[in-house]
Amino acid sequence: MNSVRELLAASVISIQNSCFIYPACQKCFSRLMLDSRRFNCLKCGRTGEAKDASYRYRLSLKIADTNDLFDITVFGSCLDPFFGVTAENLQRCIQDINQLSGETNTDASPGLLVQAVETCFIGKRFIFGV
């Protein structure tokens, strides 16, 4: 695998999904399998109580430079400044909003949040480290 990092100046064309955070293993950052009481990491085997699961940002974007289109995913705390809170705190807010609205899909982000993320990113130019 090539370990050379490059910088890519590109504009965001679209947001690829509406789920911006995921339950992440604190050891290997893989997505955790959650049920109502427990979590399990299929990659490294870490387990624990669901209430202790940590969350991480994952923003999938379609971007374009002057010549090409790319699908890119941005992970982690580098997104904290854009959202204004950590992924942990955003997850708590989403849970609270979903409870108040009666939403049963725990992976769903509220529509206003999706619109805000689209407004913040679509059409804007960023420098990505790839």
How much of the sequence is in beta strands? 35-45%
Let me know the average pLDDT.
Answer: 90
Give the total of beta strands. Answer: 8
Q: How many whole angstroms does the radius of gyration measure?
A: 16 Å
| Order of secondary-structure elements | EEEEEEEHHHE
**Number of separate helices:** 3
- The coarse silhouette is globular
Low-confidence stretches: none
Helix/sheet category: alpha+beta
Helix content: 10-25%
| Biggest sheet statistics | 5 strands, antiparallel
The quaternary state of the protein chains shown equals single chain
Q: Gap between N and C termini, in Å?
A: 13 Å
Domain Replication factor A C-terminal: 9-95
InterPro entries: DDIAS, Euk_RPA1_DBD_C, NA-bd_OB-fold, Rep_factor-A_C
Keywords: DNA-binding, Metal-binding, Zinc, Zinc-finger
Pfam families: Rep_fac-A_C
Structure commentary:
This protein has a domain at 7-19 and 58-129. Helices cover 23% and strands 35% of the residues. It is built from three helices and eight strands; from the N terminus they run E-E-E-E-E-E-E-H-H-H-E. The strands form two sheets. Strands 1, 2, 6, 7 and 8 form a five-stranded antiparallel beta sheet that branches. A three-stranded antiparallel beta sheet has the order 3-4-5, with no helix packed on it. The model has no long low-confidence stretch (mean pLDDT 90).
